[in-house]
Amino acid sequence: MMTINQAPLLKGLIITSFEKINVEDISDIESRLMHLGFVNGATIEVKRKSRLFKEPLLVEVRGRLVALSKAEAGLVTVEVKK
Q1: pTM
Q2: What 3-state class would DSSP assign to 11?
Q3: What is the DSSP string of 19-63?
């Protein structure tokens, strides 16, 4: 298992879990991701990583392209779709 940050480009990925955060300010990130379709079992694909500092990442979820920061992408655990 790996986070979206560590995931290979252009491979089908399945979301397996979210890192739980206890800080109230950051819990909004989890809520935002879930509203965008980043839920357990969803299929996603990392389309691009910025070459400079590798941030942000462009991720396709439910047919939409979403830009994620490294911090946001590090919260989501994925595995390569078989």
Answers
A1: 0.85
A2: coil
A3: -----TTTHHHHHHHHHTT--TT-EEEEEEE-TTTT-SEEEEETT
Q: Which CATH class for the 2-80 domain?
A: mainly beta
CB atoms closer than 10 angstroms to residue 21:
13
Structure tokens at 43: 């299929």
Q: What is the pLDDT of residues 34-74, one digit of tens each?
A: 889 999 999 999 999 987 766 789 999 999 999 998 888 99
| Of 64, 8, 1, residue with least CA distance to 36 | 64
**What residue segments make up the domains of the chain, in order of their start?**
2-80
Beta strand 2-3 with 64-68: parallel, antiparallel or unpaired?
A: unpaired
* Band of pLDDT at residue 82, cut at 50, 70 and 90: confident
Rg (CA), the chain: 12
